[in-house]
Give the backbone structure.
Amino acid sequence: MANPVANEEKLVEYLKWTTAELHRTQQQLRELEAAQHEPIAVVSMACRLPGKTRTPDDLWDLVSEGRDAVTGFPDDRAWELPEEPPYAELGGFIDDAAGFDAGFFGIGATEAVATEPLQRLMLHLAWETVERGRIAPHTLRSTLTGVYVGATGHDYATRLETAPDELLPYLGGGTSGSLVSGRIAYALGLEGPAISVDTACSSSLVALHLACQALRRGECRLALAGGGTVMSTPHTFHAFAHQKSLAADGRCKPFAAAADGMGLGEGVGLVLLERLSEARRNDHPVLAVIRGSAVNQDGAGYGLAAPNGPSQQQVIRAALADAGLAPDQVDAVEAHGTGTPIGDAIEVQALLATYGAHRPADRPLWLGSVKSNTGHTQGAAGTAALIKMVQALRHGTLPPTLHVDRPTPLAAWKKGGVQLLTQAVDWPRREEPRRVGISAFATSGTNAHLILEEPPVILEEPPALDDVPTGTPTGSQVVAWTLSARTPEALRAQAAALVTQLTAADPAPPPADVAYSLAATRSPMEHRAVITGGDGAELLAAARALAAGDDHPALVRSAPDDASVSPGNIVWHFDGGPSDDAAPGAELYAAFSLFATVFDEACGLLGTRHGAPLPAGLLRFAAHVAYARLLLEAGVHPHTLTGDGAGHIAAAYAAGVLGLDDACRLAAAHAAATAGGAPPPTPDAYEPVLKQLTFHSPTLTLTSTAPADTPLTSPAYWHHHLTSPPAAARPGPDALSPDTPAVHDLLVALARHHTTGGTVDWTPLVRRTARPRAVDLPTYPFQATRHWLHDHTTHPSV
């Protein structure tokens, strides 16, 4: 008969298990829901926009100073115009749209000519955006990094009558919208989604929305997102002129009574996005966060290209819902605002209906548009708006909208708290985060809206114990500044840009932070230079010499005529003889956190095996293994390893024959057997410890000290080595002697190796704390030359 008590106990246990499973499932669902709405960090930005705007800081200068970037038509694009064009020959244009550093990306001159400017400029921006995110671009190869690019206006080859035969293999891909994203992914080796979007004027904001969704779903870990348009011909002006939608003076007058149409412009922009939790974990910059976004369609409205007010309201409400925010929690809107009277009026009505209702009188929704400065940059419009508002958050100011005589009378402004930004307005931090909505609507009918928020305030914490430098070096801290480029000219330009940025910085960043940033956030290239020193003025003087093509005692650089000189074979010899140095490696210990970590670990193991205090010989052994680990982590691999006595054990550790624990075990046994100058030990002195060791096949060449038929991985080999007199022969001069050199001498030796064909990973050498601080550096100085299709072809007149 069943035991009722036992059955009851089983039921209780089952109910406990079921309850626990239910709690786990509920927690997983909460985490999944949170992930679907996690804020997305804007890690970095890059752009080329009208008004000689080549950086986000340039854009801020343009809008904060209230400057108008509209100019006459460019004279370097072979535009043939009607004698009496039905529009003003004015617009917002990128300077040097034909310029491209083809060699940097491994693209031949013929293919570069056949590739549209949008693809080429996006390659420049992609590299810059990654570098501004304090990420070495080469480290993204084979990673799940996505590319989402809004690409419109592919008119580069539309007016061709004939083209040289050598261009024909490249023109298809060179003018394809799909390759705007695909070429970025190929150039950087990215393996996340690469998607080009064309929804006309909303393209880049739609691309940003898709990137945010992909990051939240885990389709990519990082995403480059943005868009652009480059007008290679005047075709867009012709098309909009026939629609009678261009402003007479070529300028956008957003929401103004004087608005008489759109002013055309062009531009390109990219941002680097990452989930906020990942950006924090990776110590990447967080310039702002995207709280939510939405995309919808006008559907069957009043016309294919006509704006649809109800759809605009719906997309705004959907973005607010995605962000989990109420309308009155948003301070401003960077509007689509093209300056077309009816379109602007419909947009204002949508904003009044969504954001404007029930706002307090002292907190109106501020309304502006960057198009008043740059013109309508089409495929770049949404990204330009985003970059402008990230900068506005950073500077605490809402900049003015230009060309507004008075608010348009076509909108019922009194029906809600919406106010046009006709002058700059302070936007200080307050208890609740500052937020701005960004809109983009399009002739395609595809609408997008995005909610941008200031980055969360991270309170400064005192450094953790493992974040404090491991020693206190005497005098100035010697560091290495590493620079590289594809060409000697670019290397000099890189040095000049670094000098300019560091001398302008107030306060200037510490030289050690600059050293870490150069090593960890920039990719090594063929032409290299290393500057070593402990004084900021000396380092800058050497950088100026490099920029000028001059020599300097602190400067080591690639040979001018050959950047691929093969480095000499490196031999590491570990001397196991007696040492008078009471603190071997003290300078290295103070300078390199990795050396200190390994040295301390080795001393701990040796103390366990031998007892404390450690004799000088074992301290020297600990310094040798720490030194070897430091150089191996830096990617410096010797051609041959040699050593005698305990030094041979250190060499075996470096070669991978022994792990650190076993190497310390054997070194401690050797020190005990030879203590006090004892004669060679008895034949069985090492038998007990040798039976405890695990040997591995060497990963580097270790010179044998035993008969040729005795394998390095056998106890017999080590018994023979440790019981035999040390060999008298020593190797010749070593390229990198591991006998605890001074920090300066080590860095100079590594600099010579690095600049003569070897490659050094400088990150562990310049990492002075467990969590080093990266600082902003100049981006790569592309050496652009002109590549323009119509310089090589004939085309009919308009």
